[in-house]
């Protein structure tokens, strides 16, 4: 009866990859012949059978049974399959690059078959035997349709350039897909950014974030208001059903009733948008950093003098305010072994190098010498308010001078104490590094900063609470960490080192952060 009890316990686990659309009769017999289970085979993932029996739905470890019946799969010729649906920005370049790198690492050969503009299949075969080991089916569409595919069981993974909406989370939970807001149900695959784009002939080089929002909502409609010629602005945006289109509206309108300009020219993908902007000297578009084409990126500036472009480091640290994480959403299913190995590979340092070569921003932590941050410390002196004393600035320099800043930075959702999506990914990444012993023997300091709203004394307290909250979140995630192997400290400098102007919500959000400094 041990086998039956094990099977019932195993039935608590879910997995995808059904063998076929119709259930088929099978009989599973324990290898000693003492236990036999019959029913309709609902699925097989290369390791486990899922069978509808008189006991209910059971999941049975294939290594402990023999299968008989018309529905029995071939254990030796099993082909792992994964269906992905969503953003072309992810599915057209990034995922194929990762699949090919994974195949190379695993001794497999990757081949591509394009069915049409929206559907592609990658087949992984064994280099020695030529046997097919896996197939990855891509449906390149928009984010709304991708989540609909997941809910309709027409996709196993969503490729998204925005977070799941509350209604998608609710319907996913109701459909048995698990909680899509759970850290185990989503991961940040790579980083991108929203950037304002103009044609090379355009003589405007900078724009403030409030001005950009006013252009996109129609409040500013002439280049003369931005220091350019007296000509109307032609606004170009992504399709409103796409992840980038929805991320643009979320970040630009901030939930205000006035949405994006109804007359804006919409595009199905970033390549098309960039090409259209490049042809029109009076166009302004919001596209992705990875798909700028022949356009010119406007720097984001503030009234106080700060200016920022979407450099790789600025996007990685979220110092650039309009970040666009690239998500994979994974339902609560057991994937085939080959698929699990691929998903694990996407977190490897080798995979992050592939991300960078593909033109996106990787998540590998970098250590930045204080000598390379002179502009930040100069701004700290130049922008220090009346409440920031010389002694406080000197204390900050003395504290940080022996350390290096990690590119891993933590920021919070607007009006919330909840970390934003990129920062939640950073928590998991830092926790894994701590558990692996990467920082053994070193000192890590969680340093809190705030915006300049309110009194400096209160901002100092808020910054320290944020640093404490991030440290505690990392420790909760790093369950196997032996804290005696390293030193974890807290520090806060409040509003002493702003990253942006406090004249906009984007600037204030950039300033409210927790940095990691190491020695």
Task: Please provide a written account of the structure.
The structure is a single chain. The chain contains 15 helices and 24 strands. Helix 14 (456-477) links the parallel strand 22 (443-449) and strand 23 (487-494). It has helices spanning 2-10, 88-106, 143-151, 166-174, 209-217, 243-253, 270-279, 312-316, 337-345, 349-357, 374-382, 390-400, 421-436, 456-477, 505-511; strands at residues 24-30, 36-44, 48-53, 56-61, 65-68, 80-86, 108-114, 119-126, 132-140, 157-160, 186-198, 206-208, 234-238, 265-267, 283-288, 296-297, 299-301, 307-308, 323-329, 367-368, 404-411, 443-449, 487-494, 513-518. Helix content is 32%, strand content 27%. By secondary structure, it is α+β, with helices and mostly antiparallel strands. It is globular and about 85 Å long.
What gyration radius follows from the Cα positions, in whole Å? Answer: 26 Å
Overall average pLDDT? 86
Helix/strand/pairing category? alpha+beta
Query: Kindly, what is the distance between the CA atoms of the first and last residues, rounded to a whole number of angstroms?
Result: 57 Å
Q: Report helical residue fraction.
A: 25-40%
Shape: globular
Which spans of ≥5 residues are poorly predicted at pLDDT below 50? 1-22
The number of helical elements comes to 15
Strand content: 25-35%
- Count of individual beta strands: 24
How many strands, which pairing sense, and closed or not: the largest β-sheet? 11 strands, mixed
């Amino acid at each position: 009866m041990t086998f039956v009890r094990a099977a019932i316990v195993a039935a608590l686990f879910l997995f995808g990859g059904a063998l076929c659309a119709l259930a088929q009769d099978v009989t599973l017999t324990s290898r000693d012949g003492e236990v036999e289970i019959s029913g309709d085979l609902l699925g097989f993932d290369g390791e486990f059978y899922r069978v509808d029996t008189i006991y209910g739905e059971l999941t049975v470890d294939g290594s402990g049974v023999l299968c008989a019946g018309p529905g029995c799969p071939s254990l030796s010729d099993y082909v792992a399959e994964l269906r992905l649906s969503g953003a072309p920005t992810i599915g057209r370049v990034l995922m194929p690059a990762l699949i090919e790198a994974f195949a190379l690492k695993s001794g497999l050969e990757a081949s591509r078959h394009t069915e049409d503009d929206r559907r592609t299949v990658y087949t992984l075969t064994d280099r020695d035997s030529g046997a097919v080991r896996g197939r990855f089916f891509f449906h390149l569409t928009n984010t709304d349709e991708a989540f609909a595919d997941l809910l309709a069981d027409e996709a196993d993974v969503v490729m998204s350039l925005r977070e799941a909406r509350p209604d998608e989370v609710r319907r996913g939970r109701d459909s048995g897909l698990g909680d899509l807001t759970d850290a185990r149900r989503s991961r940040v695959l790579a980083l991108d950014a929203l950037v304002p784009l103009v044609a090379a002939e355009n003589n405007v080089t900078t724009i403030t974030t409030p001005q950009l929002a006013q252009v996109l909502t129609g409040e500013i409609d002439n280049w003369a208001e931005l220091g350019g010629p007296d000509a109307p602005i032609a606004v170009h945006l992504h399709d409103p059903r796409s992840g980038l289109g929805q991320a643009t509206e979320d970040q630009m309108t901030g939930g205000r009733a006035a949405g994006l300009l109804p007359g804006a020219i919409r595009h199905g993908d970033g390549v098309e948008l960039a090409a259209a902007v490049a042809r029109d000297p009076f166009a302004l578009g919001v596209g992705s950093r990875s798909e700028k084409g022949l356009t010119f990126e406007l720097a984001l500036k503030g009234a106080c003098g700060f200016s920022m472009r979407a450099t790789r480091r600025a996007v990685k640290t979220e110092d650039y305010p309009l970040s666009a994480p690239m998500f994979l959403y994974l339902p609560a299913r057991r994937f085939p072994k080959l698929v699990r190995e691929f998903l694990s590979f996407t977190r490897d340092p080798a995979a992050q190098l592939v991300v960078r070569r593909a033109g996106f921003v990787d998540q590998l932590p970098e250590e930045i010498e204080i000598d390379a941050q002179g502009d930040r410390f100069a701004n700290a002196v130049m922008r220090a308010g009346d409440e920031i004393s010389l002694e406080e600035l000197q204390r900050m320099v003395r504290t940080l001078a022996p350390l290096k800043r990690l590119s891993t930075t933590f920021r919070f959702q607007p009006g919330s104490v909840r970390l934003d999506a990129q920062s939640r990914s950073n928590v998991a990444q830092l926790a894994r590094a701590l558990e692996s012993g990467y920082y053994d023997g070193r000192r890590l300091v969680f340093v809190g900063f705030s915006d300049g709203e309110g009194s400096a004394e209160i901002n100092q307290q808020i910054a320290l609470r944020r640093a404490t909250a991030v440290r505690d979140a990392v420790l909760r995630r790093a369950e196997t960490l032996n804290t005696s192997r390293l030193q974890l400290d807290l520090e806060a400098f409040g509003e002493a080192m702003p990253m942006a102007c406090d004249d906009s919500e984007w600037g204030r959000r950039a300033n409210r952060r927790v940095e990691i400094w190491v020695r």
